Amino acid sequence: xxxxxxxxxxxxxxxxxxxxxxxxxxxxxxxxxxxxxxxxxxxxxxxxxxxxxxxxxxxxxxxxxxxxxxxxxxxxxxxxxxxxxxxxxxxxxxxxxxxxxxxxxxxxxxxxxxxxxxxxxxxxxxxxxxxxxx
Length: 134
Known about the structure:
The chain is an alpha+beta fold. The protein is built from five helices and four strands. The longest helix is centred in the last third of the chain and has 12 residues, at 122-133.
């Protein structure tokens, strides 16, 4: 059963803005409570906001990569809505999604038809044009 959960788990990225760097512990608490496995995290860093969010002109930006089931990721989003975060965003990790796409088999290129004319060179095209214009 545990192997099934690991197979169905996806890699997610959570980015967040907080007004105090100590509020990051609340984010990690939600992840732990939902059974998410944190694979990487960045230290929150101070950033100047492009526009005020909840009357704040600066905030602390942090991010976390984690593995979880899709249902758990939805639960994490719902639980973070009640936390004192300025903003947050949970997405499927782009790097992992791209590698998953790369592993998918691609459809075979269509073979050229036997009666399809071969590509012409510039000289052959110029000769054809001269014949047509005469």
